Amino acid sequence: MKAVGYILLLILLSCGKQSLKKSSTTKQNVSALYQAQEIRVKVYYEVGAEPYISDNPLLEYWTILEQNLKALFAGRKIEPQIRVPKSLQEMSLIPASGDVSWSIDDVLKLSNKTATSSSATTFEIYFLNGHAAENPGIIGFHIDRTKIIAIFKDVVRSTGTLDPLQLVPKYVEQSTLVHEMGHALGLVNNGVPMQVNHQDKVHGSHCTNYKCVMYWSNEGTSNLMQFAQEAASNGTIIMFDDKCLKDARSF
């Protein structure tokens, strides 16, 4: 786990991600998710935008997302089975659209054409070529009041410019997924009530704690460095802080 923590330190200093600003103040209805016996993640990827997959069974990248989701539900009366794919064989290849700029409406239209499940507890994650139309620099976004997340592979790859081992982009990808899944599951104060106040209202549904993955800024600041160093020294891959975990576990 120390190796994982060290790599996490590297990527958290390098990545920058944010959620799209929401135009509505209506909070998400996530009650069904917190009463579910199973939560499933389905992944769709365009040709050329394949998610990173580890060929080392001792360090599967998608275990990071899986373990963070499990941590949110740990200790609840209902602890759902968390189904996260870990190989390309468990994910769905879709044709390259040719689009290089994706709006929220574009992603919604793709979902309407592509998704094979209407389950209330199935999340759709789309790995796309190109970038977000509203903000080309973000790595991904969650569409509010849906279970849809978009990840922009070109932006993910760009985080590895100074990384000869190309480890940074792999963990950038996973930390972005954890952040956006946090939004999709009602954090922070966007469907899941807070047990104590820790919402950064200036930046929307984000945490005031710079040591939490739900903090609004992930762009290599000194606060983020401290967060990454602590994660490395603790040897943990759980990126949510105690307040976010307590919110989810108490809902």
Describe this protein with a few key phrases.
alpha/beta, 251 residues, two-stranded parallel ribbon, single chain, 32% helix, disordered N terminus, 6-stranded mixed β-sheet, Collagenase (Catalytic Domain)
Please report the total strand number as a whole number: 8
Strand content: 5-15%
Spell the H/E element sequence. HEHEEEHEEEEHHHH
Cα gyration radius (Å): 17 Å
Largest sheet: 6 strands, mixed
Q: What is the fourth-level CATH superfamily?
A: Collagenase (Catalytic Domain)
The secondary structure category is: alpha/beta
CATH class: Alpha Beta
Alpha-carbon distance between the termini?
30 Å
CATH fold-level label:
Collagenase (Catalytic Domain)
CATH architecture: 3-Layer(aba) Sandwich
Whole-number total of structural domains:
1
| Alpha plus pi helix count | 7
Low-confidence stretches: 1-23, 218-229
Oligomer: single chain
Task: Work out the helicity level.
Answer: 25-40%
Mean pLDDT: 83
Protein model, in words:
The chain has 251 residues and is α/β, with parallel strands linked by helices. It has a single domain (2-250), classed as Collagenase (Catalytic Domain), CATH 3.40.390. 32% of the residues lie in helices and 14% in strands. It contains seven helices and eight strands, in the order αβαβββαββββαααα. It has helices at residues 2-14, 62-73, 104-114, 153-158, 168-184, 222-234, 242-250; strands spanning 38-46, 81-83, 92-94, 101-102, 122-128, 131-132, 140-142, 148-152. Strands 1, 2, 3, 5, 7 and 8 form a six-stranded mixed β-sheet that branches. It has a two-stranded parallel ribbon with strand order 4-6. α2 runs parallel beside α5 (168-184). The protein is globular. The relative contact order is 0.21. Mean pLDDT is 83; it is low at 1-23 and 218-229.
